[in-house]
Amino acid sequence: MRLPSRRRVVADDAHGLAAALGAAGRRLLASVRWLGARLAAPLRTGDGPNKFRLSSVETHTTTIEGDTGWAYRPPATVRCPECAADIVQADARAAIDCPRCRVELPPGQFTDLELLALTCPLCRTRMLYGQRHPEAFDVPEWATCPNCQYHWEFKHFY
Ligand SMILES: [Zn+2]
Ligand SMILES: [Zn+2]
């Protein structure tokens, strides 16, 4: 039972740190909680480019920026259904306007479009993303930046 106790130590350390840091710490704590859930859950391999690895050692030393909720979804690139051009939707509530053929779609149309990329809002790197409940949602449920480790979650599950 070495692994579970080590995880608890990480969480307790993060809690003390979070209290000391205030709001920024709470964000960090949310990320660490997410990491804990991620480490505890079996890795899913069939639902997207799930290539990142984070060890419990790294959670000690890395400050991770993150957001939760669809309203804070990272900028997305989707394929225009009319002309196949790339359309960048800055956030989940922005209109989806094609720069080439001028088609304009409401934000709710997002789920009908082919998602090409999510972009890190901090450093503009292409993010890795995937789903946790492909049977329940038709959208990415998490995204993580391979460059700066910014992490976004659709929803809290704890
Ligand atoms: Zn178009
Ligand atoms: Zn980044």
Strands of the largest sheet, in order across it? 1-9-8-7
Let me know the largest β-sheet: 4 strands, mixed
Structural class: alpha+beta
Ligand roster = zinc ion
**Beta content:** 15-25%
- What's the number of domains? 2
Task: Average the pLDDT over all residues and give the rounded result.
Answer: 76
Helix content: 25-40%
Features:
158 residues; alpha+beta; 2 domains; 4-stranded mixed β-sheet; 3-stranded antiparallel β-sheet; 3 helices
Structural summary, described in words:
It is a single chain. With 158 residues, this protein is α+β, with helices and mostly antiparallel strands. Helix content is 28%, strand content 18%. It has helices spanning 2-21, 23-40, 56-61, and strands at residues 66-68, 76-79, 86-89, 96-97, 104-105, 115-118, 128-130, 142-144, 151-153. The strands form 3 sheets. The chain has a 4-stranded mixed beta sheet, covered by helices on one side. Strands 3-2-6 form a 3-stranded antiparallel beta sheet, with no helix packed on it. Helix 1 packs antiparallel against helix 2 (23-40). It starts with a helix and ends in a 5-residue tail after the last strand. It binds zinc ion (2 copies). One zinc ion binds next to loops.
Task: Write a concise synopsis of the structure shown.
With about 160 residues, the chain is of the alpha+beta class. Helices cover about 30% and strands about 20% of the residues. The protein has helices spanning about 1-20, 25-40, 55-60, and strands spanning about 65-70, 75-80, 85-90, 95, 105, 115-120, 130, 140-145, 150-155.
